[in-house]
Amino acid sequence: MRTSKGLVGVRQQIFFYFGILSALTVITSPIGARAMDYFSLHMVQHITLMMITGPLLVLGTPNSFHPTNRYFKAATNPTFSWFAYASLMIGVHLPVPHQFIMNHPWAHTYCEVGLYLLLPYLFYFNLLNRNLVGRRVTPAMSVISLFLMMVPETLTGFFIYTAPGSLYDNMYSLNDQRIGGSFMWAGAMIIDAIWMAFAVFHWIKSEEKKSQDMDAEIAAGNDK
Q: How far is CA 123 from CA 68, 117, 127, in A?
């Protein structure tokens, strides 16, 4: 469905509502209620908010939404947002920060979950941009950036899964820890592949537009 600038299409509305639904599913449901008791549920909440909710909200954002506010532009800087996203993902699963968060419910509810919603949106904002012109990040670089993010994501899950003992002073059973690690390890690769497919699609459409514009220029030159 084509829409005028500033309007929101049906697909964008669907992406937006599914993004909100995915967040509510892991925050207000039993998953959210027990996320501090089971590492596997904590990881389900983490993966959903960072790798599903964030991208869906970006895809549900109107094409015309490009704030000129310098703080937003700085926060969505491709390099900054990449490292901020990766740092959050790795940092909250290091033993000391993770134990602090799990021992202080306010840190999980108001800090960790809030960052899970904010930083992924900033990271994916440029990478899943549907505009074919005037992009801050080229479609090709979007694919590369998403591919590179698979490295810290999958390695985080891999090291958690293969740890010979508890990483968090026996806050969880070893089996629960390994289940959570496997979710991160395998789940990240599967979900990232989906968003990479979106980015590749945008890349193809961008190249098609370049080709059409070039053909139009050639045709206009021949008519003179």
A: 17, 11, 7
CA distance from start to end of the chain: 35
**Count of residues in the chain:** 224
Tokens representing 42 are: 């904590």
Residue type, 219: A
User: What is 3-34 written as a DSSP string?
Assistant: --TT---HHHHHHHHHHHHHHHHHHTSHHHHT
Which residues, at least 6 apart from 91, have a Cβ–Cβ distance to it below 8 Å?
Answer: 97
136, 126 in Cβ contact below 8 A?
yes
What is the 3 state secondary structure string of 89-117?
HHHCCCHHHHHHHHHCHHHHHHHHHHHHH
**8 Å CB contact between 8 and 62:** yes
Burial of 65 (0-12, 13-18, 19+ CB in 10 A): exposed
10: CB partners within 8 A, 6+ apart: 1
Report the predicted TM-score, pTM, of the whole model to 2 decimal places: 0.86
Nearest by Cα to 62 from 18, 23, 22, 11? 11
CA distance 59 to 85: 18
Residue pLDDT, tens place only, 111-164: 999 999 999 999 999 888 766 556 678 888 889 999 999 999 999 999 999 999
